Amino acid sequence: MRILGIDPGYAIVGFGVTDYSPKGFVPIEYGAILTEAHTEFPLRLKAIAEDMDYICQRFKPDSCAIEKLFFTNNQKTGIDVAQARGVIVLSLVRHDIPIFEYTPLQVKQAVVGYGKAEKKQVMDMTRRILKLENIPKPDDAADALALAICHGHCSRGILR
After folding, report:
1. Global pTM?
2. Domains in the chain and their CATH numbers?
3. Non-local CB neighbours of 26 within 8 Å, separated by 6+ positions
4. What are the pLDDT tens digits along the chain (160 aa)?
5. Is CB count within 10 Å lower at the N or C end of the chain?
6. Phi, psi (rounded to 5 degrees) for 18
């Protein structure tokens, strides 16, 4: 099963593609969609949509794990991230890719085994599970890979 993990944002969208089987995970590709800060917001959304279409076409994932949004202090940033996430979700739907949402707590639980794990622990376990020499960069890509791992672990019941 090919899983696309997405860490949504509008400046940086982390993505990670893994293959998952009962033998474990194989990393395929990871990175980030970057948009320039001084670009008009609608054009940033367009760039995200175009890059998401490219990722979907190139890797043909069987499913996508995406982080559930939750608002913290800055609602303006949260609204902008929600708009970017909407563009991402629309791209996935257009490519008929099933979407699964996970909270940060669920990701930490699935990757580290402890829902209150620190970000460094999640990143290191992601590196270990994927048998990578270094923690993936940028952090958003590492987060996206952790989402893909979370979905792989959570989908075991679905696969049976």
Report:
1. 0.94
2. 2-159 (3.30.420.10)
3. 18, 19, 20, 130
4. 999 999 999 999 999 999 999 999 999 999 999 999 999 999 999 999 999 999 999 999 999 999 998 766 666 678 899 999 999 999 999 999 999 999 999 999 999 999 889 999 999 999 999 999 999 999 999 999 999 999 999 987 544 4
5. C
6. -135, 150
Structure token digits, residue 138:
């940028």
DSSP letters for 33-80: EE--TTS-HHHHHHHHHHHHHHHHHHH--SEEEEEPP---S-HHHHHH
Active site residues: 7, 67, 140
Angstrom distance (rounded) from CA 136 to CA 121: 13
DSSP, collapsed to helix, strand or coil, labels residue 23 as coil
User: Can you give the C-alpha Rg of the chain in angstroms?
Assistant: 15
